[in-house]
Amino acid sequence: MPWNLTADTPIYLQLVERMKSDIVAGIYAPGQKIPPVRELASLAGVNPNTMQRALSELEREGLLYSERTSGRFVSEDPARIREAKASQARELTAGYLDKMRSLGLDPQSVIRMITEQTMPAPSDGQGRN
Amino acid sequence: MAELLECRNLTKKFGSKYALDNVSLTLGRGRIVGLLGPNGSGKSTLIKTINGLLTPTQGEVLINGELPGVESKRIISYLPERTYLNDWMKVRDIIEFFADFYDDFSTDKAYEMLERLHIDPKDRLKTLSKGTKEKVQLILVMSREADLYILDEPIGGVDPASRDYILETILTNYNENATLLISTHLITDIEKILDDIIFLKDGKVVVSGSAEAIREQQGCSIDAYFREVFRC
């Protein structure tokens, strides 16, 4: 998957977000060893120092941990990962609501739209089941 | 240990014109540094001075604590702004030439890169396009195990796909303690791999620092910041 980094915000922050999404989505499973810094840097097309900084940040947040000799691993603590997931979801929701607000929609209309979109299409007549 | 590169109050005058005006900077190990500035800002003059091709009017350059000379040439791999290779030579002859000349040259690495970029080692330099010639030169420079790589406008004539490969090569090949100094106008293409940047204007350093810190402070890309600082 391409990394789609933009140059107008600090790159390490974008790398942190991306790695977080991958961990939350289970692309990197709990306890799994992640590729070495250089490999990740080359995949993302960024400087290894920048990738290093992002990984250190993720370690600080407890989503990754490193074993001195064998490499870096995803946290095995499900609560940590749940927490990261919830925080990403909150951020995405806040961003979405901001965009809707700029379109002039109040939260009530937004909720209505979401309900409409997520409800099964109404069947013709009174519904048979 | 001495800094890898230190410029102290470096001044270079051509006649009465200042090409470098009191430039002081240091480069540590393991960094990728962008030397950025508009045409005529002194980038190539600075690079030539570091490589000992020009002598400073005032101030000094120290590489590993020593003045430019035989030792500094051993540890610096330099890509000049223009070609100096004999164009009657075949690519493989030049590789042999480099392997003979530099202790730290890896022939295997050179051939591997030639293959990836679809360059035939049997071709004479004369028959290659401008962009392909540039690729050959860059391959020669990156096939060394140097401490400091200095690339003067390395990707100008190279197509975008090869550019990606070259940047990837730079990222995967240079060793962790090596430093790269890259001068370029093509900031967008390389800014994601830069640790630090130096902006030169009229021979003076006007901005220098970490690329991420500048993005954070300015809220924009290095490319956008460059356009702002050097607005015509």
3D structure, described in words:
The complex is a heterodimer of chains A (129) and B (232). Chain A is mainly alpha-helical. Chain A folds into 2 domains: 11-76, Orthogonal Bundle (Arc Repressor Mutant, subunit A), CATH 1.10.10; 79-118. Helix content of chain A is 56%, strand content 6%. Chain A has helices spanning 11-24, 37-44, 48-60, 78-102, 107-118; strands at residues 64-67, 71-74. A two-stranded antiparallel ribbon of chain A has the order 1-2. In chain A, strand 1 (64-67) and strand 2 (71-74) form a beta hairpin. The longest helix of chain A is centred in the C-terminal third of the chain and has 25 residues, at 78-102. Chain A is elongated. The model of chain A has no long low-confidence stretch (mean pLDDT 88). Chain B is globular. In chain B, the strands form 2 sheets. A 6-stranded mixed beta sheet of chain B has the order 5-6-7-3-8-9, sandwiched between helices. Chain B contains 9 helices and 9 strands. Chain B has a single domain, classed as Rossmann fold. Chain B is 35% helix and 26% strand. The model of chain B has no long low-confidence stretch (mean pLDDT 91). By secondary structure, chain B is α/β, with parallel strands linked by helices. The chains are: A mainly alpha (129), B alpha/beta (232).
Please sum up the structure shown.
The complex is a heterodimer of chains A (129) and B (232). Chain A is mainly α and 129 residues long.
Give the key terms.
heterodimer, A: 129 residues, mainly alpha, Arc Repressor Mutant, subunit A, two-stranded antiparallel ribbon, 5 helices, B: 232 residues, alpha/beta, Rossmann fold, three-stranded antiparallel beta sheet, 9 helices
